[in-house]
Batch of 3 targets.
Target 1
Amino acid sequence: MRVSRTRRLAAATAAAALVAGAAWAATSASASTAPARATAAAVQRASAGGLTPDQHRRADQLISIFENSTTELQYGYAENINDGRGVTAGRAGFTTNDGDALKVVRAYTAVSPDNPLARFIPELERLAAAGSGDTSGLPESDYVAAWKQAAQDATFRQVQDDQVDQRYFTPAMNQADQLGLTTALARAELYDASIQHGNGSEYDALPALIGRTNAKVGSPSGAGESAWLNAFFDVRVDDLTNPANSSTADEWRKSVDRVECLRRIAATGNYNLDGPLSVTAFGSGYTID
């Protein structure tokens, strides 16, 4: 299961009161062109998991803010954050203890056999099989350096994008389709939860969060999408504050503001994730075009 990474935030920032809001501005279409634009947008959404390309990009940038405190996707990030999961690396925090990183490196090696990470596959397999956070056998410093080197390769960056789509984005969009969610913000929230919580059968995973939300307020069609989304925010915050997986508790409690940031966007009414989008997360401000 994926875990939140808040290690790049200063302690003082993490402890500060988070009171900033989010603002947005968008250009309206004229009545004469609205039907044509609506048709084009529908085609775009159908090909991008229910999101237009711009909405998908903004969702990715929001998640990058939550994960790495920048709107730029961090393909070369690699660090042991001492959370028991070994080295956390790449744009979505692929870890060495649970097979996430192994799948990325295997996929990269399949298309680029002579790459700097290929030699780590046997040890990554051992760590994944054991669920071990031990990195001494890699060894850690060599693995981190190799990941950073590989990230300079466009092929490796594309592999990371593909893995994120297959393992996090598509499952989240499938859940959104089943729920009948139509707004970009609600879909982005499920995508972010998929990245952080995973899509397994655990109590802390996205399907369980959805189940508890439905039990609390009913389906989105019955409760209304905005009311359902607000309830999902509450359920997710409760899970981050009191996760069943105790090994991630400290990190997750620090990450609550990634949910509150999206709740602040909802409070502005920008359910379409229109840009430019100005947000505050963990005490820092960002603008997404």
Target 2
Amino acid sequence: MTRSYQILALYGDGIAYEIVPEALKVLDAVSRVYSLNLEIIGPYEFGSKYYAKHDMKEGWDPEVTRELLFDADCWFKGPVGLPQYIGKHGHYLPINQRLDQDLYANIRPCRLRPGVEGVLKGREPGDIDYLILRENTEHMYVKAGGTLSRAGETEMAVDNYIQTRKGCERIIKKGYELARSGDYKGRAGAPVDDKRRLTVTAKWGICQGDNLFKAVAEELEPDYPDVETDYAWIDAWSYWAIMRPNYYDVCVMPNQYGDIMSDMSGAIQGSMGLAGSINAGDEYCYAEPTHGSAPDIAGRGIANPTSMALSIGMMLNWLGDKNNDQSLKDAWKGIDEAIDKVLVEKKVRTPDLGGKNSTVELGDAIVEALLTS
């Protein structure tokens, strides 16, 4: 009997209401093609706008209980956050779920796909294919800090970034494992030489936490002789990622650096609309596109749903690994290949890719490619 899985779906803000429905269509199609038994729960209301409308007391629909979040096999959401609600932080923020479920690995692929014109001169599909592996529970986003205010004026603000041995060890080990497996990439190894390579990048020599990050990597390096270990300061890496992106395979870095560099990588691969991601731990996982809520185009029906489709595909792959279920891993490959098929045909494209098609039309094209594969 085919095993059943519960997948929780949440909306978000802005273009979430346009791209989440497309993700549901893709899940339905992939279930039929690969005989998956997926029970979709939701999608439920969620996000900063919902939080503000409910007097800063509820960040999501009351149906979404803590038990549901932890009992579901995995979950996904659209982008969250709107400019008018900056500073009105609450429990709707995804950073809270990353900590609550100990989702220590944020996996963000950067791949120049067939049919997509990149921004780097002379780079062709296949030349760029690396992962940003971002530590997801430490560094600048642990909210260890505060402000000093006098007479109603904020005079000082302090943020402390934190790195622990445990946090460094597990994310670096995950980097080595991903370099070995080639998961979430077009192929294993770096495009320039096919070498499985882990690039460790931070700002050691300047920041104490980053000194620890590098020291832990050096301790672990001998345990992975089949993977080449490369070290680069984060500022130097940001240069080399543009000058020689084909050298990189898996790049592991502390939280804030990974947040910033993955956005740069979104540009390198041609559009943030192609940038999927998952937040993964050993027991739990949720998927979300790398990009934000794009309020400037929300409601116009032109957002690229590919990032959302790629994210749920990655989520299925993680679930397949956890449960030793090859059908889920095959479903991820099917989604990945269907997207490449649509892109290389250059018939259906949203404006970010130079086309004039709608969100729904691109979603339909991905579904059609899945069903006819």
Target 3
Amino acid sequence: MARQLRVPTPRIRIPTRVPKLPRLPDPNQPDIFEEMTLQEHLEELRTRIFRACLSIGIAFIGGLIVARPLLQTIERNAQTPEGLDIGSPTDPITLFMKTALYVAICFAMPAILWQLIGFLAPGLTRKEKRFLFASLPFVSILFIAGAAYGFFFAAPRALDFLSGWLNDIFSWDPDGSAVINFYLTLMIGLGTSFQLPIIMFILARLNIVSPRRMRDYRKYSAIAILIISAIITPSTDPINMAVVAVPLLALYELGIVVARVFAVRKPAGAEAAAG
């Protein structure tokens, strides 16, 4: 008679205490700065860089998965039915790996920022730490939103305009490396530029720049945004520059509203004297 195999039932212990998220530093407590030697700073920097590179390496697996669909989308938006032109036999694998790496950096951006803040935290006050930790999720969301805007809207509109410019004179056959760099430049540039409201929020909360001064410097900020847009945009035409500049100008206005809502309130006399 065959004997039945009895599998022991594992005992699962249900914890009685629910783990809690770490609390943000209390700004009312006195600041305590840890003194570190140069060697300790270098070791801390090495550890942070290693962890950031490790997060990129893990995210690189996801980049390898989505790189091919992204390249296919870029090829369709570039309006090259016969495929993107290459100038070297190694360009296909090089561009594939480059795209996967940039995607991995976007995926790992929250972990990279966490390591950066962790390295800077010992030299910051509790108030500064609180604002940085609180703004970290919004930094990641805005970076992804900027990169998505560059990939799905800005770059396709720019290529559509450029491919039709004097098409009766020029033959549209762009180099694959140039097209992919065009996309990556817009994605990284817009993802970084979309941090403008967060920067304005931190400046207002730390009482470095008041919302009133942000409004007064609106015209100078607009000029700076136009210059940044010209740097981000690989082309020189005003239409593509406007595609980048318009959302940044809107984000600046949003930053003024956010700074006005969350800024440190000053007495009326002190604000008048500062102005």
